Amino acid sequence: MHRGELLAVVGENGAGKSSLMNVLYGLYQPDAGVLSLDGQPVRFKSPRDAIARGIGMVHQHFMLVPTLSVAENVVLGREPTRHGLLDLERAVREVSATCARFGFQLEPRARVDTLSVGSQQKVEIVKALHRGAQVLILDEPTAVLTPQESDELARVMRGLVAQGHTVVLISHKLKEVLGVADRIAVMRRGRCVAEVRAADTTAEQLAALMVGEGPRAPAAAAPASAVSQAPGEPLLDVRGLQATGDNGRPALRGVDLEVRAGEIVGIAGVDGNGQRELAEVLTGLRSLTSGSGTLLGGPLGGLTPAQARTRGVGHIPEDRHHRAVVKALSVEENVALGRHTRPPFAKGPWIDFKGRRERTRALTVAYDVRPPDPEVALRALSGGNQQKVVVARELDARPRLLVVVQPTRGLDVGAVAQVHAKLREARDQGTGVLLVSLDLEEVLALSDRVYVFFEGRVTGHFPRHAFDERELGRRMLGTLEPGHA
Amino acid sequence: MLEVIHSLLFSTLDAAPALIFAALGAVLSERAGVIAVGMEGMMRVGAFCAAVAALTMPTPLAVVMGMLAGAALAGVHGFLSIRWRSDQVVSGIALNLVALAGGTFLLESLYGPNGTPPIQQLTRWNLPGLSAVPVLGALSGHSAPTYLALLLPFAFQGLLTRTPLGLRLRAVGDKPQAVATLGLSVSALRWGAVLGSGLLAGLGGAVLSTAVLDRFEQHTPAGLGFMALAAMVFGRWTPVGAFLAATFFAFGNALRIGLVSSAPGLVELIPQGVLLALPYLLTLGVLTLQGQRSSAPAALGTPYEQESR
Amino acid sequence: MPERVRQLLPSVLSVLLALGVCWVLIALTLEPGTATDAYLQMLWGGIGNWPAYLDGAAATVITRPLGESAMKAALLTLTGLSVAVAFKVGLFNIGAQGQMLLGALAAAVVGAQVSLPGALHVPAALLGAALAGAAWAGIAGLLRIYRGVHEVISTIMLNWVALSLVDNWLVVGPLRGAAEGGQSITGTAEIQATAVLPRLLGEGSRLNLGFPLALVAALAVWVWLTRTRSGFETRAVGLGAEAARAAGIPVARRMGLAMALAGAMAGLAGAVLVLGTEGRYPGTLGAPYGFDGIAIALIGNNHPLGATVSALFFGVLRAGGTRMQLLGVHKSFPELIQGLALLFVAGRMVWLAVLRRRSVAPAASAEVPRA
Questions:
Q1: What is the crossing angle of helices B239-262 and B144-162, to 10°?
Q2: In sequence order, what are the beta bridge partners of A135?
Q3: pLDDT value of position A161
Q4: Same structural domain for residues A78 and A51?
Q5: Residues 6+ away with beta carbon under 8 Å from B152
Q6: Contact C368/B84, CB-based, under 8 Å?
Q7: For range B294-305, the mean pLDDT
Q8: Co-location of A279 and A168 in the same domain
Q9: Most exposed among A83, A340, B295, C297, judged by the fewest C-beta atoms under 10 Å?
């Protein structure tokens, strides 16, 4: 990379972007190979070395101590002292100066856990700059930001480059990268497969390079053949739905939507605009604060996860490790999870070992789970096979409404195709599917109708024949007044 | 009346230091994110080694031996929980059991059931001029650890809030990953805190043998290590808070003992058992009212793993 | 190496290592010959002196030691189960000691102050003890569920509250036994004959109904955890609470019930102690079987049957420990072995790393980061 440019590193999940950057930052040690800086080979034993050589990193998950102030976080590890004591006044002055130099607005005395996500990210950047970073690595910086904050960040990055800093942006959002980077390196399966000038390429070309086989994934390539016939009875009908997010702020601010039997309804939106909370409300994991709704013949208010399952709601959650599976349990126990009180998984209060084993065997064959061993602990399976177990379990329950969040994140191309096919199959058998995905292409490829979410509201509603990527994109960024196309 | 207050204060100041040191040790360890259930065992080892050492060397030096013994046990705790990321509670409990049984075994094998032979107690210092003042006179006539116990909490509080090291300790207890990404060593900071807590617990134990008593007794420290945990929680994981809580508990105890001898009628009214349970009941009450999450270090009990960014 | 063996090996090796270290300790403080003798005495004292019996000694040289071992093993099994059950739902029950005290007190009260026909009295006393232990543990469970108070801290506090209230107030105050024949006694009144746990091998051996009761309890807990829906839910909560919640499992109820069951087990231990051997709540119930339960459960890999095996082993050691005194080795010695074994089990990761180094190529073993 060159001084004073903005290099973007793109690639699919698991392509090795983050690992590369962690080596660069001294957190991981390279197994082989040489790292050169200003023409000299260097070897970073710890982040301390990297920092000393002017490299700073902003991690995807912020590395801030929430209980400390902005200034304390920034000076941590190189604290100004007077007579051996911490000189907090000087720290505040220094941090203010750094902020002023780069045009950040931050209150140095504020406790970090009181700041918005966007501000916390600025603290991270200030932290690196304060240490004299010439090279700044940002790992998936916009994943948690609102569109405005993302725009702001882009301005910040360009500003840094203009001041002679080098910025490395790791991302899988191609459009964003194209808009801001000078040069783009594409990674695939741990290798850098291409380097292009941003001005000379298009999103389509980049996508092809990332995937490595012609135009993108089968998902996008699959023709829209399998469009729903005629949607059936309404399964879900909500009006004015409101709910609060984990941070205590409103996440859903009055959502109206409907899902009918036999259709896939997509929810498009930038991460953090209420999609996750919607899925949680529908599966009984989060309570709504106001609004009304009917879910499979019952009220939506006061729904518990157990009730949701009894009514016929299936759930493929976003966070597999945390929410969908118990990795220390066996495959068959995970297949039973959530249905363990009903045949063929139980006989009265007892576990039906035989029934469970047979059903699991059948599912591992039907969904090509490898290894096809019901007794092995789930954690011994690859991520893709774990996800197959989840999909198999949820579809096997023959749900009337299936809530699916990011079903293909981190999966390889083959597994993605299989999951998509299974979702279409379920739709064709009359299940209503609500699909939440941050991957717009996935939403467009699968959905019969799409709602666009922005800041907890529906800002657009498109039937399949009216899909228009540009228009959807604008609605996702909230640049249009709410309305229906 | 003044005499009563004087003697109450005096016995509080005599008994409190062991608890204060152990509570400070617990705060040090837990603020760095390492659970301190092993305090009882470290105190016991400190008490035993100090008493044995004092048989052959000057008592102040024996106290240092006790501290080192506590730190040695803490070293085992650090080896298991920091180096090998074992469960911190399991490791602490194991050390308690080993110290309990090992102490008994060695004591009985070497000296018989009645404790070690008596040793030279630490010298008591009479502060000239102060001894004559009513009430304040209770400050005079204690051994060095008492005065240290009155100063150390504030020094420790200063260290925690006013120095770079303190900032780093607080950070490593709340978010070790943040500390690691800045190129600081999480394990070095935690090792320091754990060894420091061992020194303090050892000191607490040594004080029991060399200042409060004049030998190591079978049951030492008889749960004081757990009461130190209560003081830490009650003091909301701050050094001065833990100091105040420990002093309060020690005062309550002195009051109880005083009441038993001077006003047995009152003890009929409020049974001793209830008074004995009071520190723990109060601590449970505080936890119930405010919940634990509000003041405990965020990363308490979680081993730091580099891989799990 | 099969997974099951790999799970078991650290515990077995830890116990062996502890035995070895302690042998060296005796050899150093006394002499090597004595150490071996002491271990033999411990064995005969635990499982019965078979050589003497075969030489024609009375059967009591077998039944008496076995009775002592069984009695201790019963208590260790129950407190070990208490800790293990809580572990299964993801909670660390340090409070078995306090729960045991409450159970012992309840058993003593029901045994002495309630008059019931023989067939009902023992079950009633056991039930009372189980309920008392469950209630005491339930406090910690509720604090965890509704106030987020970590159970390690709350159970430690509850132990000391129980000790202070029971030993220093109730037993010496309101519940103190009436003077009998003009003599004042410490502790509560003697339990009625109907409440005594029957002895199984005659009066010469203290083996009583408590031992089979503990084994049945262990078996029942094992069956419950592995064969029933609610046991499955309990394990799922312990291994992944958030996934369990998403699967519709009532997480709070499972936690609360498992904690109550843990308390009930510890309470039963108290009842077995009072109804089987002590005959009343004595002035002070010194025996720290509740704390031992932590070691028993962890050495038994938190498995109900594993805990039982480890309880049997340490029961034998404990009973045999008294015989070691003949050779000048204090009877607390088996507790030291137990403590060291737990310490080595805590170093489980070290064991696994060592074992891996043996079975796989040496280079692949250095996976543990410099954390």
A1: 150
A2: A55, A166
A3: 87
A4: yes
A5: B20, B21, B24
A6: yes
A7: 81
A8: no
A9: A83
Cβ within 8 Å of C, B 136-195: 186-187
Distance from CA of B82 to the nearest CA of A (A): 18
Q: Is B240 on the interface with C (CB under 8 A)?
A: no
Say if A421 is an interface residue toward chain B (CB within 8 Å): no
Q: Given this model, what pLDDT does residue A215 score?
A: 39
Q: Scanning every residue of chain B, which has its alpha carbon at the shortest distance from the alpha carbon of C26?
A: B109
Tell which phi-psi region holds residue B208, choosing left (phi > 0), alpha (psi between -120 and 50) or beta: alpha
Q: Is there a domain that residue A342 lies in?
A: no
Nearest CB neighbour to C243, from listed A310, A324, A341: A324
Of A216, A236, A257, which residue constitutes the final position of a domain? Answer: A216
Among A216, A242, A273, which residue terminates a domain? Answer: A216
State pLDDT tens for residues A293-339.
889 888 988 899 999 999 999 999 987 888 899 999 999 999 999 99
Note every long-range contact of A89-97, with CB atoms under 8 Å and residues 24 or more positions apart, other chains counting.
A94/A130, A95/A70, A95/A71, A95/A126, A95/A130
| Single-letter amino acid, residue B86 | S
* CA-wise closest residue to C334 among C277, C284, C296: C296
| Contact state of C228 with A329 under an 8 Å Cβ cutoff | no
Size of interface B-C (CB pairs under 8 A): 164
- Residue A351 placed within a domain: no
C161 touches chain B (CB under 8 A): yes
Domain containing A199: what range?
Answer: 6-216
Q: DSSP code of B163?
A: S
CA–CA separation, A83 and B270 (whole Å): 53
What value does the mean pLDDT of chain A take? 83
Q: Is A260 found in the same domain as A119?
A: no
**Regions of chain C short of the pLDDT cut 70:** 1-3, 179-184, 357-371
Q: Fill in the amino acid letter for C324.
A: M
What are chain A's partners, defined as 3 or more CB pairs within 8 angstroms?
B, C
Backbone φ, ψ for residue C267 (5° rounding): -60, -40
Inter-axis angle of helices C304-324 and C32-47, nearest 10 = 120
Q: How many residues are listed for chain A in this entry? A: 485
Instruction: Give contacts of C 207-236 with B, CB under 8 A.
Output: none
Query: Hey, are the CB atoms on C246 and A304 less than 8 Å from each other?
Result: no
How many domains does chain A fold into? Answer: 2
Q: What are A42's strand-pairing partners?
A: A35
pLDDT higher than 50, residue A431: yes
Helix extents (H) in A47-87: 47-52, 70-75
User: At CA A424, angle to CA A422 and CA A429, rounded to 5?
Assistant: 95
CB pairs under 8 A between A and C: 70
* Closest chain B C-alpha to C167 CA, distance in angstroms: 7
Please give the pLDDT value at position C357.
67
Read off the amino acid at residue A419: V
Residue whose C-alpha is closest to residue B187's, from B266, B287, B97, B78: B78
Q: Which of A240-244, B66-70, C367-371 has the lowest mean pLDDT?
A: C367-371
Q: Which residues contact A41 (CB under 8 A, 6 or more apart)?
A: A34, A35
pLDDT top residue among A181 and B2: A181
A104-126 per-residue burial string, b: 16 or more CB within 10 A, e: under 16: bebbbeeebeebeeebbbbbbbb
A383-407 pLDDT per residue, tens: 888 999 999 999 999 999 999 998 8
Which domains, ranges and CATH numbers included, belong to chain B? 2-122+150-290 (1.10.3470)
Phi, psi (degrees; rounded to nearest 5) at B9: -60, -40
Does the domain spanning C3-365 belong to CATH 1.10.3470?
yes
Which of these, B218, A466, A482, lies nearest to A474 by C-alpha position? A482
Q: Phi and psi (nearest 5°) for B240? A: -70, -40
Asked if the model's pLDDT at residue B63 lies above 50, the reply is yes
